[in-house]
Amino acid sequence: MLFFLTPSVHANEMDKQVEAILELSLEEILDYEVTSVAKKRQLAANVATAMHVISQSDIQRSGAQSIPELLRMVPGVNVARINANSWAVSIRGFNGRYARKLLVLMDGRSIYTPLFGGVYWDAHELMLQDVERIEVIRGPGGTIWGSNAVNGVINIITKQASDTQTHLVSTSIGSEQQVNMAYRYGGQMGSNGHYRVYAKGVKWDDSLTASGTEQRDAWHSGKVGFRADISPTHNQTLQLQAELSSGAIDGVSSLNSFNANPTEYSDTDKIYGSHLLAKWTQRTEEGSQFALLGYVDHAERISPYLHDQRTTFNVEFNHLAPLGKRHELNWGGGVRYIADEIRTHSNYSLQFSDPASDHIVTHLFVQDEMSFPDKNVSVTLGTKLEHNPYTGLEIQPSLRATWKPTKTHTVWGAVSRAVHTPSRFERDGKIEVMSVAGTMPFVMKLSANDQVDSETVNALEIGHRSVLSPTLSMDSTIFFNVYDNLLGYSSSGTSVSMINFTPTLYLPASFVSMGTGESFGFETALKWQPTDDLEFQFAYSYLNLQIHTPIHFENDGSDYNQNAETQSPRNQVSIRGSYAINEAWHWDAWIRYTDALYSLGIPAYTNLDMQLKWQPKEHITLSLIGHNLLEPAHAEGKSEFFSLPASEIERSVLLNLSWTF
After folding, report:
1. For residue range 625-647, what is the model confidence (pLDDT) as tens digits?
2. Where is it localised (predicted)?
3. 165-182 exposure pattern, b = at least 16 Cβ within 10 A, e = fewer
4. Which percentage of the chain shows pLDDT scores above 70?
5. φ, ψ (nearest 5 deg) of residue 560
6. What's the domain count of the chain?
7. 383 to each of 320, 333, 398, how far by Cα in Å?
8. What distance in Å separates the CA atoms of residue 177 and residue 203, rounded to the nearest whole number?
9. How far apart are CA 623 and CA 615, in angstroms?
10. Range of the domain at 58
11. 469: CATH
12. Is 2 a residue whose pLDDT tops 60?
């Protein structure tokens, strides 16, 4: 995320600004705070990690209607819309609907599902107007956030209640997102507190198949919620949250049955969610800080073949304390209890051997930040110890350093390790997948293995931040990752069986920790503002991912991540432009290029989004938004386990009216 100074139109004033910028430090230019790197407030210029911040201004200018759409602007983040209700989101490869190497948080609350791994994005529709910022860490974050933060962390941070002290009414109608309605009201709680209540409802139309028929994947959802922020004293804060949500999602799957011919199943999933969250923060005059976070989260998903309900109880703390002049100790720990119940229909091929389970995860981290002001160097060394019932003790250390050769340049480097623990499905599930392509139908029965180990990554990263001129700044990162214990599956061989009186090639297989791999990549972001009214943001990312899976003559192996090499784009480009025509009219454009996904049969594509915004009065805004304007429809991704044709994401228009009072 890049910030810069705005130039004057006169040459002599430009010279003065050039001189002035040489006197400024990078901290004064990159003067915004982030909290996700070390669970403390830090200036973006000082973090030794690849960090990008999506601000509320970015959200307003993007025309995006969901979190995954916003994440497209971040270099190194892979985003593909699978259909009307499903997304594939990952960082630095391994993309898919159930992308397992990414941790996503909302105000510090994990929304990662341990069933398959990954995130059900359809269950997390937010009021984007109340999002303060989205902090995206590219690279391992296991030392602070624990398991599953393998390739990155996304932390969605909402506004404090004191910043939403108005009525807000927002209404949208469109061709694909047919309805989007939101309401929020904020008020005071005595002399030291503020609150807000909110409600939102959204409805999406079906996507299309390549032949132009409807995919039957329309969906709608709604939520109501509450947040309060109370400050008993100037150095104490209490944050409270509560939310209820529900939705209905149409779908068609060709997940075949054990007892019937494979066919497409048309169904509607019901989703329900609720959570309560409380966070207490205490600061001292000496610079010490103590934070205690607790939440209860319940999620339920009901479909014809699967009824999954899960309750999570989480309590954690962290303590930040200066030790002398050079050291700052950051440590903490916590416990998480997860109880679930999974019921599957006996006629469907997805089954779990244990319908109900519970487990406890405990963790402790410690980190020491050492400052050497005379050398303009800062070094952070830390590790996390985490215990889970599947793989036991996991250790996730990191070493990070920053060096500031000049006031406007920062060079940083990091060496770190992170792990992905096996999901519930990988240790307890089984699934039958059928393909009717070729001369003979083929069925693979993939079974869990309670002996699989955690997937690991050892990462090396080097980055550079700089202000190149009063109008131009840049942030670049090079990384090299080495992966071990990647999940694969192995089998003793195939056989021919009669299924429904049809000769069928049958392959029983089970999960094993057998794969290795490495990835190399480069990411850069530039921001340029030639005038007060005109701004451009550019992002480019390159990814080269190689997967290696041993194959044995008697125990043939195939990689569970076999499509990962070409399931994420090798090259991605994003260019955004914003122009303030006058005080009332604003124009935004966003063009993106995404490389081909060869394993999915999806060609490269280029998208263009545009937004024209009119603000006749201070509290009224009317926006006309167009998405995917360059072609009528295009495919972006497919689901891993459900053998459906790729959906076509259509060109769409949207009209939004927002009113605050």
Report:
1. 999 999 999 999 887 665 566 78
2. Cell outer membrane
3. eeebebebebebbbebeb
4. 88
5. -60, -30
6. 1
7. 15, 12, 6
8. 6
9. 9
10. 11-240+249-660
11. 2.40.170.20
12. no
CB atoms within 10 A of CB 546: 12
Tokens read off for 422: 């096996």
Residues in the chain, total: 661
Spatial distance between the Cα atoms of 523 and 465, rounded to a whole number of angstroms: 12
- Which tokens hold the place of 346? 């006996």
Structure tokens at 368: 């020491």
Tell me how many degrees the CA angle 15-18-20 measures, rounded to the nearest 5. 110
Give the Cα separation of 140 and 463 in Å (integer).
Answer: 14
For the record, the structure tokens of 341 come out as 């119940």
Phi-psi region of 68 (alpha: psi -120 to 50; beta: other; left: phi over 0): alpha
211 vs 549, higher pLDDT = 211
Tokens of 387: 């215990």
2 within a domain of the structure (yes/no): no
Given this model, what pLDDT does residue 105 score? Answer: 97
pLDDT band at 20 (very low <50, low <70, confident <90, very high): very low
Task: Work out whether the CA dihedral 550, 556, 557, 558 comes out positive or negative.
Answer: positive
Q: Which residues contact 536 (CB under 8 A, 6 or more apart)?
A: 527, 528, 529, 530, 575, 576, 577, 578
Q: How far apart are CA 540 and CA 575, in angstroms?
A: 9
Q: What does the pLDDT look like over 564-594, one tens digit per residue?
A: 788 899 999 999 999 999 999 999 999 999 9
pTM of the full structure: 0.91
Name the pLDDT band for 265 (thresholds 50, 70, 90).
low
Whose CA is closest to 183, among 147, 135, 224?
A: 224
DSSP 453-477: PPEEEEEEEEEEEEEEETTEEEEEE
The count of C-alpha atoms lying within 13 angstroms of the C-alpha of 75, restricted to the half-sphere facing its C-beta, is 29
Outline where DSSP puts E strands in 205-305: 219-230, 236-253, 265-283, 289-302
Residue 290's SS3 state is strand
Residue 319: inside a domain: yes
Q: Which of 303-317, 453-467, 542-556, 622-636 has the lowest mean pLDDT?
A: 542-556
pLDDT digits 0-9 by tens, 226-235: 999 999 999 9
Which 8-state DSSP code applies to residue 555?
S
* 3-class SS of residue 567: helix
pLDDT tens string 48-96: 999 999 999 999 999 999 999 999 999 999 999 999 999 999 999 999 8
d(CA 185, CA 197): 5
Residues 6+ apart with CB under 8 A from 13: 7
- Of 546, 542, 540, 541, nearest to 519 by C-alpha is 546
Cβ atoms of residues 524 and 502 within 8 Å: no
> Quick check: is 4 in a domain?
no
Asked, for residue 591, whether it belongs to a domain, the answer is yes
Count of CA atoms in the C-beta half-sphere (13 A) of 576: 22
- Cβ neighbours of residue 180 closer than 8 Å, sequence gap 6 or more: 65, 170, 171, 172, 174, 200, 201, 202, 203, 654, 656
SS (H, E, C) 122-183: HHCCCCHHHEEEEEEEECCCHHHHCCCCCCEEEEEEECCHHHCCCCEEEEEEECCEEEEEEE
Whole-Å CA distances, 163 to 57, 185, 230, 547: 15, 11, 13, 47
Q: Please, which residues have CB within 8 angstroms of residue 618's CB and are 6 or more apart in sequence?
A: none
